[in-house]
């Protein structure tokens, strides 16, 4: 449902013909919002702005929500929402179990492709972003009543398994006893070996063929590598409190049997052509073709994603597909989507979006690395944060940092700033929530029932807070549509700031009678919205801090 400011905006636009661009008023005496629409129109019409403003004010009927409109200065229109309307709207946040989030009237089946770690390697910080952002989309879309189908596109197939299995056999190891750290060490050894020893390299290549043709010994070692890796990833998911489970696993290998079928379909429909021995799809707007099958007959990452799209549309019946993968793969996904549209795997009524995200940078502005210059592992990052704060606060710090800057932007990992309970941080929001809880706890200790209605809101700080509370549902709907979690972060930050301002200017426990009751109700409404919003970000709302 739309908030009053949004309804107001539409009402003005219906009359003025342009977006009134309502801005929060600069001073309480100007009401809640101000618009310069009359000044803009006056210029185009060559009329005095105040005259244009008067015309708009005379035609506009917003008396349901607003006090009589005022024209100020050169022709600004001031809007003041009626206090009782605001109080009634904000009161709904107290009783509505969904705290103002209205279920969509067009529920969709939404596939979200996220996490996608690679077998026999630890998750790196890029996978952190994918996992945290994907989890947030999952929560937001679910809250709106969509059916979310997470797909964890694990990197569990490819030529690297030839050398991994070969190395295990050569060293006579039992991979079933490995953890992810050991597997990664093995990966490094196998890689070195492959580069230095042509005989080993040759055996590794033959091992790839054995894997692909279903050799049982090879497959069983490959399976062990997957099992141990998934166990490691699940440990990380548990630590991150994300919703992914084994049911969501749909690694590259699940598409093995489909690859030859896809290649044939593409060739038969003329979508793909043989070029220099390789099967390729040329699509307009891309400077290189997509290689479907290499000249040696091998399949790669590209066709696997075509098969995944085909499966997600045909079998999972996706209406919308969201890929949470780093911006380095933007070209890849644009090409995958274009090829799939051309091949008919992706009908016009199915939306496919690449929600690309930027890098996590170190203080030097370069890709975040460990102290010895290695790639930063996700668990190193969690450990670093937990050195500075307790686990729920450390997690809030990391997740919020990940979600609160525009997705596409790179951001600097500054743990000292991120864990602070001041400024635009996750812990600041947790702190605001804990403060609401504290006030309510104290009231409860005095056997005071928290009322279910906000009744008096005369102070500007109360009104600003109430107004902000009413915008929650709309903000969540906006994130579902735009896939911009930073808007929810920004909303919650503004809410926490409005609460801080209210808390500093309006005594709650020291107030009396109806004012006290109403202010306590405002605290409760704020607590509910903060808790709900933090939950959508995957952040724990703490009762005490
Ligand atoms: N495993 C890939 C990586 O680590 C990410 C997979 C993304 N999803 C996909 N459908 N390609 O970069």
UniProtKB/TrEMBL annotation:
Question: Which reactions fall under this protein's catalytic activity?
Answer: tRNA(Arg) + L-arginine + ATP = L-arginyl-tRNA(Arg) + AMP + diphosphate
Instruction: List the InterPro entries hit by this protein, alphabetically.
Output: Arg-tRNA-ligase (IPR001278), Arg-tRNA-synth_N (IPR005148), Arg-tRNA-synth_N_sf (IPR036695), ArgRS_core (IPR035684), DALR_anticod-bd (IPR008909), Rossmann-like_a/b/a_fold (IPR014729), tRNAsynth_Ia_anticodon-bd (IPR009080)
The residue stretches assigned to a coiled coil in this entry are: none
Can you state the subunit structure given in the record?
A: Monomer.
Where is the motif named 'HIGH' region mapped on this chain?
Answer: 117-127
- Record-given protein name: Arginine--tRNA ligase
Entry's NCBIfam families? argS
Family membership noted in the UniProt record: Belongs to the class-I aminoacyl-tRNA synthetase family.
What organism does this protein naturally occur in?
Microlunatus parietis
Compartments where found? Cytoplasm
């Amino acid at each position: 449902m739309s908030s009053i400011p949004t309804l107001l905006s539409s009402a003005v636009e219906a009359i003025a013909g342009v977006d009134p661009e309502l801005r929060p008023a600069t001073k309480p005496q100007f009401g809640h919002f101000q618009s310069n629409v009359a000044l803009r129109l006056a210029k185009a019409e060559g009329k005095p702005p105040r005259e244009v403003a008067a015309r708009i004010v005379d035609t506009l009927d917003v008396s349901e929500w607003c006090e009589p409109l005022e024209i100020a200065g050169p022709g600004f229109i001031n809007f003041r929402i009626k206090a009782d309307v605001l109080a009634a709207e904000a009161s709904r946040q107290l009783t509505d179990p969904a705290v103002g989030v209205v279920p969509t009237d067009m529920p969709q089946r939404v596939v979200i492709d996220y996490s996608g770690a690679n077998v026999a390697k630890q998750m790196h910080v890029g996978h952190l972003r994918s996992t945290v952002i994907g989890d947030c989309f999952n929560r937001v879309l679910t809250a709106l009543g969509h059916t979310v189908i997470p797909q964890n596109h694990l990197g569990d197939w490819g030529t690297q398994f030839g050398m991994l299995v070969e190395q295990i056999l050569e060293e006579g190891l039992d991979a079933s006893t490995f953890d992810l750290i050991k597997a990664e060490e093995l990966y490094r050894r196998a890689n070195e070996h492959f580069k230095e020893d042509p005989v080993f390299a040759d055996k590794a290549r033959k091992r790839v063929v054995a894997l692909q043709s279903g050799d049982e010994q090879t497959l069983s070692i490959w399976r062990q590598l997957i099992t141990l890796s998934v166990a490691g990833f699940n440990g990380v998911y548990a630590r991150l409190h994300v919703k992914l489970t084994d049911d969501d696993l749909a690694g590259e290998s699940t598409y093995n049997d489909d690859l030859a079928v896809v290649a044939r379909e593409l060739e038969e429909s003329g979508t793909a052509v043989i070029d220099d021995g390789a099967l390729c799809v040329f699509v307009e707007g891309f400077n290189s073709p997509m290689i479907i099958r290499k000249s040696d007959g091998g399949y790669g990452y590209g066709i696997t994603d075509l098969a995944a799209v085909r499966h997600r549309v045909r079998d999972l019946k996706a209406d919308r597909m969201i890929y949470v993968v780093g911006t380095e793969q933007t070209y890849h996904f644009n090409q995958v989507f274009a090829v799939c549209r051309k091949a008919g795997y992706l009908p016009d009524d199915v939306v496919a979006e690449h929600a690309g995200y930027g890098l996590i940078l170190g203080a030097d502005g370069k890709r975040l690395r460990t102290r010895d210059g290695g790639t930063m592992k996700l668990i190193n990052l969690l450990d670093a944060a937990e050195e500075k704060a307790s686990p729920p606060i450390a997690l809030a710090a990391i997740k919020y940092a990940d979600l609160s800057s525009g997705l596409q932007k790179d951001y600097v990992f500054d743990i000292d700033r991120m864990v602070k309970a001041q400024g635009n941080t996750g812990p600041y929001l947790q702190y605001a929530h804990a403060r609401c809880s504290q006030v309510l706890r104290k009231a409860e200790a005095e056997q005071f029932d928290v009322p279910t209605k906000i009744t008096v809101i005369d102070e500007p700080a109360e009104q600003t807070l109430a107004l902000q509370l009413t915008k929650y549902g709309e903000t969540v709907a906006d994130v579902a549509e735009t896939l911009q979690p930073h808007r929810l972060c920004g909303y919650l930050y503004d809410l926490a700031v409005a609460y801080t301002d209210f808390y500093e200017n309006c005594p709650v426990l020291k107030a009396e009678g109806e004012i006290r009751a109403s202010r306590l109700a405002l605290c409760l409404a704020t607590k509910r919205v903060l808790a709900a919003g933090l939950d959508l970000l995957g952040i724990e709302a703490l009762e005490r801090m």
